Amino acid sequence: MKICYFVYDLGSYSGAAFQALNLAKRLDDPVLIFNVGSPFIGLAAPHIQVFNVAGGARHGFFKITWQLLRSNVKVIHFHGQFLLPMLIAKATGIPYVLKTTLLGDDDFDSLLRKRFGALRLWLSKRCSMNIVLSRRLLEINSEHLDSSKIKLVPNGVTVTEDSPSLPEKRNYFYFCGVISKRKQTLRSIKVFAENYAHLHEAKLFVIGPEKNYGLGKEVDAAYIDECRRYVSEAGLTDKVEFTGLLPQDEVLRVIRRCKALLFFSDFEGMPNVVLEAMASNCVPIISPMQGVGYELIGDGAGFVCNDVVPNINEIDQTILCHLPFKRAASCYSFEASAHALSKVYIQCAHLESNYPAP
Questions:
Q1: Percentage of the chain surpassing pLDDT 90?
Q2: Are 90 and 69 in contact, with CB atoms under 8 Å apart?
Q3: Which of 182, 215, 206, 208 is nearest to 12 (CA)?
Q4: Looking at the chain, which terminus has fewer C-beta neighbours within 10 angstroms, N or C?
Q5: Within the chain, which residue ranges are assigned CATH 3.40.50.2000?
Q6: In this predicted structure, what is the pLDDT of residue 306?
Q7: Taken in order 77, 9, 84, 120, is the CA torsion positive or negative?
């Protein structure tokens, strides 16, 4: 059967789109991806077809409807809120799966604060299945939708067979993501300055775009300047490196040499950056993120901090026992998430496939 995905900014710096593409690559069924926003250029995989949607609402409406009908799509999976496409799905009777991607933004409580919020909530409650990333999101959405129609499927990460050991790492720390107030980049820099900058050869990598890249208001030039000014005034220009946007393979090379991720975002769905850290046996030192932080690291794979952060000996011991790597390998594989979603698609479409019925 053919599955259809809707994503935002596949050609840009989007964690949700990155997740969607990696899941699609692991499905046996053909996948049609409608990409809204930054265009995707290239071949994703032989069984994946990408349509970049641009132009006005009327043009988008006809293009989407025509492709859905001519492609004989059986199930649509929305990775986030897509008002017009969700209306099309409802009108054409194609069953749709809705993924709630970000706590405080598209959970069902937050929808009413958006433009056309009542309509968005009405459409969301009529999905065939709602995919959530955390127990906190499940708790919120179950106030609006029967819990039998909500399934917790965590984000995935690529886990290699080799887990970097302590001798492979230096006193390196990093932040990765959009440099923004929501993600509290400046706090990461200050935590490094106050707790780890004195260590031998200590260094902090601030990895993330300093230009818009289709990310809208979240990229704040004034905030980036504030971060840079703090580094300069603290005399840390030789210890804090702003790398800008890096290719994914280069990001992973940096992470493998780092001991800890410093990430104190106000709220997230399930941040890819924490999963990638654990997959590289790098210790996440993170904020609670309204409960998501505790779910992510489990028992001992990292540290959820409000004020006090771990010392270097605690970090080294966690790496020595390979606790972050073990957590990533056991709980967050792309293959497990793709398999769980395949069973959801079969259930929604009432069709046979290569996967056993749920």
A1: 73
A2: no
A3: 215
A4: C
A5: 2-156+333-349, 166-331
A6: 83
A7: positive
pLDDT at 55 over 80: no
Give CA–CA dist 230/358, Å, rounded: 54
- CA-CA-CA-CA torsion for 67, 68, 72, 76, nearest 10 degrees? 140
For residue 167, give Cα distances in angstroms to 207, 220, 271, 314.
23, 38, 27, 15
Residues 251-268: tens digit of each pLDDT: 999 999 999 999 999 988
> What distance in Å separates the CA atoms of residue 306 and residue 146, rounded to the nearest whole number?
34
Cα(313)–Cα(325) distance, integer angstroms: 18
Checking phi first, is residue 339 left (phi over 0); if not, alpha (psi -120 to 50) or beta? alpha
* CA distances to 5, 40, 188, 268, 349 from 97, in Å: 9, 23, 36, 20, 10
User: What's the whole-model pTM score?
Assistant: 0.87
DSSP 8-state code for residue 239: T
6 touches 36 (CB < 8 A):
yes
Sign, CA dihedral 70-71-76-79, equals negative
Given a cut of 50, whether residue 351 has pLDDT beyond it is no
Query: Is CATH 3.40.50.2000 the classification given to domain 166-331?
Result: yes
- Please give the angle made by the CA atoms of 95, 93 and 39, to the nearest 5 degrees: 65
Alpha-carbon gap, residue 230 to 179, rounded angstroms: 14
Name residues whose C-beta falls within 8 Å of residue 295's C-beta, 6 or more positions apart in sequence.
134, 135, 136
Rounded Cα distance, 305 and 321, in Å:
21
More confident residue, 150 or 214: 150
